[in-house]
Task: structure prediction
Amino acid sequence: MDKLVIHGGKPLQGEVRISGAKNAALPLLAAGLLSEGEIRLENVPRLGDVRTILKLLAHLGAEARWEGTEEVSLCAKGVHCLEAPYELVKTMRASVLVLGPLLARFRQARVSLPGGCAIGPRPINLHLAGLAKLGAEISLEEGYVEAKVGRFKGARIYFDTQSVTGTENLMMAAALAQGTTFLENAACEPEVADLADLLNKMGARIEGAGTATITIEGVEALRGARHRIIPDRIEAGTFAVAAAITRGEVQIRDCLPDHMEAVILKLQEAGVEIHKEDAGVRVKGPDRAKAVDVRTQPYPGFATDMQAQMMALMTVAEGHCSITESVFENRFMHVNELLRMGADIRVAGSTAFVRGVERLSGAPVMATDLRASASLVLAALVAQGTSTVSRIYHLDRGYEALDRKLASLGAEIERVPE
Ligand code: EPZ
Result:
């Protein structure tokens, strides 16, 4: 295992390029199971979760390989196994995204239940209820979802809670159904729309993706296609906070400002200068950010995946604020570690009350989940002295070379074996 050693205090300067979106790459790769044709994905980020789903797809019998540095070709013609084993699913809950495609094309699937994770129990009841509504027979046996279906039949499905991967799973299942499916109260994240773009290039007939009502007219079969993955709005937001917290000035290239409106507005409210430019945004940190209240919401609200990063900025902001996590039950694992660095935070239920301090002090801290680790890195960049962030395999799951990119902006950050 590696850890990061970070000497705080250096303002970040320069230009950084954002990688393809992790949370688009995962459903897009799963969508490759829907067709015998080859799909080619460009702008694929080289990070842990992508490696995991490629391993899972290979386990199923699909041929997947890197073509150059950021392109993947995937052909699921030779799929011979319909089981996603616990050993793989437990490391990445998004593995559940193979369930809909396997059922749609092969009429059968056995997928391990993902189990909870650090940020909450994260059930998949909405995925299973939707698949049953489309006609699947589903049973839960020995920690696995056993499912089979003659052929999916179009249905009207209402999500009690907006679910990103739930919407994606059902959109993929419905693409090959007989008849038309309506998804109501669907997730509106850009990654859902990106998946619909690929599916339509493969011959699907999907309308309304990116809004809360998606219509999918089922077709007989899907062909191969080529698609470029959208940039990662959470990585871009993380670098915007990095520029802000270090009082630096960073050009964030190849990001889509429209996908990060809520985060941009909130950072501007906190006194961060953000200018939209043709190929991204330019971010200039103030001497000291102002404390602002934050409440996470499904897209287009303030992203839950940016909550921990925003909290890092608020720990050294002027004033005090409240940060409310309304999407997940337990997404404050970064708080205890930030306290070790001298932050002043009090958690009451789903709200953290943060009082800005003059400075944080470097300390040994431990990553617990993906975005919590990003938060600790951001705090260490501004803390006085040296911090070590351990268990950064959490970070490597969701960011491509975050430490190298930060170092290219002048951060004193080094990856060393634990
Ligand atoms: C996706 O997770 C993202 N992951 C998460 O990003 C992100 O935080 C989350 O959406 C919310 O935006 C991927 O896209 C791979 P949900 P997902 O289903 O789909 C409840 C990161 O850091 N729910 O939208 O698993 C659930 O418990 C990761 O990159 C049910 O109750 O999240 C949660 O409270 C973390 N039953 C809420 O809905 C279900 O069947 C939203 O979850 C499904 C979800």
Q: What stands out?
A: The pocket of EPZ is lined by residues 22-23, 26, 94, 120, 122-127, 161, 163-166, 187, 304-305, 327-328, 370-371, 398 (CB under 6 Å). The longest helix spans residues 48-60.
